[in-house]
Amino acid sequence: MTSRENGAPLAGPPDVVVDFRVRLPNDQRPRVITPPEYTSQYDAVLSVSERSGATMADLFSEMDDCEVTHAVIHAEYEFGDPVDELNDAVERAVLTDSARLRGFGTISLDPLRVRRAMRQVDRVCAGGMVGLNLQPSFFGLPMTEPRLYPVYARAEELGLLVALHTGVNYTTHRIIENDHPRQLDQLACDFPSLVLIACHAGWPWVEELVAVMRKHPTVLADFGGLAPKYVGETDTGWSVMRRFMNSLLSEQVLFATDWPVFPMRRALSEWRQMGLKADVLARLLGGNAIELFERSLPPRGGDQVQRARDRARDKEKTC
Predict the structure, then answer these.
(1) From CA 60, how far away is CA 71, in angstroms rounded?
(2) What does the domain layout of the chain look like in residue ranges?
(3) In angstroms, how far apart are the furthest CA atoms of the chain?
(4) Rounded to an integer, what distance in angstroms lies between the CA atom of residue 4 and that of residue 6?
(5) Which of 33, 77, 93, 304 is 20 to 30 A removed from 24 (C-alpha atoms)?
(6) pTM of the predicted structure, to 2 decimals
(7) Which CATH number, 3.30.70.260, 3.20.20.140, 1.20.58.60, 1.10.530.10, labels domain 3-318?
(8) Are strands 131-134 and 161-165 parallel, antiparallel or unpaired?
(9) pLDDT digits (tens, 9 = 90+) for 101-135
(10) Are 222 and 271 in contact (CB under 8 A)?
(11) Distance (Å, rounded) from C-alpha 312 to C-alpha 292?
């Protein structure tokens, strides 16, 4: 019995608040020693180590304190190959409260081997998760890497959402060109029914991301890991997003914090003080997420999930 097929239905607006992207707490993650070239600038810019000790209990406590009704736990990773253990850990975490939590799994990128990645996609779907989180730039790969195309095709077949890192990665040895959101245009052209989510909303290439979103209704943006107040300020590079999300793109934006990187209370406060239209704010904070799940869940609740489960089981027998 999976959370996708049998979990309690997500409650809808007006009181719903969905943090669309939180990280699995470190105490639940497989242990990986990450080199300093991955972490030093993240600490300098975002002070991520200050909240690295957060636990699942802290997640639920922060959700309760801030009246965040639901959260989506992503199997994000930036180094090594902890993927199979990480996917299992996200699945276990979601099952602790499947009425409030959903999960995004991932695939191995170092090394990226197509057959193994396909097995992992099937495993993610069979385990009841609703999407894939991919961060190819951390492994020196563009989003349009040819070996990822079978992964996108399988995700599209299964109805899985795909979240991709965009904007700045603060490693000191990986180029940010691989994080440019213009790549989502190519992916959306090649996979027209695949829902793509631009994590971190693509700054500093915000204008290009807005153009891609305007062209493709299947491309959405989340604002995790950044201070929302800058989206509402002038001369920060966000003015085009602020204008369009308050009108034409109101159905393509998602509240996220990248918890524990950014505190939920501060993020909610800054969004609520921005002066967005009431209906836009409601969509941003949870309405769009609920519609996204409601629109995508039914096709994944039957034969496709069973086929993925059968493939995952058969492949486990042969490995």
Answers:
(1) 9
(2) 3-318
(3) 57
(4) 6
(5) 304
(6) 0.90
(7) 3.20.20.140
(8) parallel
(9) 999 999 999 999 999 999 999 999 999 999 999 99
(10) no
(11) 26
